[in-house]
Amino acid sequence: MSYKGQNRISFKALMHFLVIGIVCICVCAVLLGTDTYAWFYDGMHTDNSVKGSENASMLSVSVYKSGEADAIATVDATEAVTLSLAEGEYSVHLALPKQSASGYLVIGVGEQDYYSDCLQRSETSDQEMTFSVKINTSKTVKLTARWGTHAEANYVQNGETLIIE
Known about the structure:
By secondary structure, this protein is α+β, with helices and mostly antiparallel strands. The chain has 2 domains: 11-41; 55-164. The chain is built from 1 helix and 11 strands; from the N terminus they run H-E-E-E-E-E-E-E-E-E-E-E. The strands form 3 sheets. The chain has a 5-stranded mixed beta sheet, with no helix packed on it. It has a 4-stranded antiparallel beta sheet with strand order 5-10-7-8, with no helix packed on it. A two-stranded antiparallel sheet has the order 1-2.
């Protein structure tokens, strides 16, 4: 009985295993690289939504019709809500829990965007701000809570009134 040559792997089979191994290593390297990028840059953007790291903003926005106690809309994190607002004055309240990333509100009316002041991250206390929005004629308004900061020169600050014509 001769076993010579029966325990050998053919060259073709060896190359097959080698190619599969190299492809697996490349896939692992790509996944590790994209995960590391998302971690260090606080998120990945996909289809206008944000997948954030653990310190993403938990910005909460509530809109009240002046003189009423119940909120007519609430926006959390990076979701957006579209409202049809009648003529009148509205109060907008932003709240940012401590140890959450900075955040702000974008108020879109048609092609025009208005920005709130940025609420900055704090290790010790929650950050809040309230401002008024006065609408002179009925408008459709899109509210989008964003995390991070903006570079806009004109924005509404705590206690101010934003007038939308």
